[in-house]
């Protein structure tokens, strides 16, 4: 089960420890990497002249970058063999990449974790296939993820149970379950295995094993409601028994009781009499059973030919609800308690494998979730020869693409909850992570640190200043790391901060998948960014926004250009949000659509205050109202007509996305290092990272696995 390497690092490194040490040194002390991963923002490209490209990109890189089309550059960065590519470029007579750029590409490639699925994992999941009804509601990407990961989790749970037979995995806890696609697949696998239908040979098919329950933890109630509906449609969860009601017959029965028998036909009278007789028979059977208790006799079973009669409650729903409400008021139970008791009773009656827990996780302590889980009733005996129903619950915490800190909570569950025997977490949405150490303040030669600016029409939230103990980095090694000073440095001052930090721009770029970009997608992608960068320049020129100095007083327009450091100047951004597809047809269409949206509602996501929105509405309405098509065409010619200006943006954005592969590798390595530190303390038996999805199907494909040390070991 465990891969050969605990981290999928390049073969150029001797071990995982060697990889981590060199990775930390590179991330914390390489200026050009720090510029491209957090030091550049798309909206600053055209707010200065000649442009941010010439301020942040090394001068010897610029000719080569501007000479390459976007897809040519992506091939050179990501796919082409570097030595073969250099030979072809030299023979073609085109601009050659400088040695420093070639070395940078080599470094980023070797520090990026390998994303190929290991042969053992690929072989085990080759035959994995989910029933069609279980894939209901999934797209192609989700089917691939759920199919592969459910198979992986099932094998991991089996391996952990075999290694520690006294504490086998009985429940799978899915944190952030959403619509519970993964939990539904895992529950269906448990049922199939229970029936002995998926073993490769007869011996394994006949072997009995514990069933596993699924605990789906979700913060949004409407997701749980939708998931339960899918559970019933797919047959994983038994549908509640609906009472039989016949309102017409009930009304006729009331007429009979009131003496209005003349209005009732003989057919209706016979139906009412049969129902009354069935009710009397049921009461008499209950009395006979009560009288016979304690007597030394074997009860005679009823004849098989006797049909079972279901007595229907024919009253309207409102009358039944009123009666139930009055009974509940006498018992003093709240509505939530009653609903919870009904759900538990229904689950126990149907013996469902899935249990839903609604709640928002704030840390890795899952005790409030695990305490609600009851042991599953098992048939037969375990391998040790004792009743398996006596085994206490033991949990495997899993998640597919848990956003932000939720991945940290899933991993910390292994440390904070003794009943959690293992974890398997696939992270995602690194931009939602909080910072444990605060914002990065590394001093880049020739460029000051560029903090994340708050949008003037956005919510005033400074996540990076929270210094959240649950945030990134998780491990002490990453939090305490201080890079070594270069031997050639003559600066005795400590110019490095302690600990690894990434701002939100770097973490957001880590969610990109440049290896999957096609030519058409790249063109549309870069065009949208180009429009946004030009719009920022229009806002600046027309006085909607002002230049701000990142470190010091506000920009003085009387300063000479020679006295201004472009890397210290920025323009406060405005949130626009998504626009209609038609708005991306041209620059004028984009500007008109964005201006109309901002003027109408201010902040795109409604997070700004009324005063902030009012100020932005007024500024946009006043200063953008007289913008003509001729003005927009002039901007288009100025920036779009010159293909090199657009290529400046696409080249830097490609470099940012390419470099951010190291950012994701650092975040994943930090999570592995956290588990490694628990292993040193004796709490974790083993931990590793490997790919579980095809990168082309699902780029966030790295799973972090940790297995708790058996207490009896």
Automatic annotation (TrEMBL):
<feature type="region of interest" description="Disordered">
    <location>
        <begin position="374"/>
        <end position="393"/>
    </location>
</feature>
<feature type="region of interest" description="Disordered">
    <location>
        <begin position="189"/>
        <end position="213"/>
    </location>
</feature>
<feature type="domain" description="Methyltransferase">
    <location>
        <begin position="318"/>
        <end position="435"/>
    </location>
</feature>
<feature type="region of interest" description="Disordered">
    <location>
        <begin position="275"/>
        <end position="313"/>
    </location>
</feature>
<dbReference type="Pfam" id="PF13679">
    <property type="entry name" value="Methyltransf_32"/>
</dbReference>
<feature type="compositionally biased region" description="Acidic residues">
    <location>
        <begin position="286"/>
        <end position="296"/>
    </location>
</feature>
<dbReference type="InterPro" id="IPR025714">
    <property type="entry name" value="Methyltranfer_dom"/>
</dbReference>
<dbReference type="InterPro" id="IPR052220">
    <property type="entry name" value="METTL25"/>
</dbReference>
<protein>
    <recommendedName>
        <fullName>Methyltransferase domain-containing protein</fullName>
    </recommendedName>
</protein>
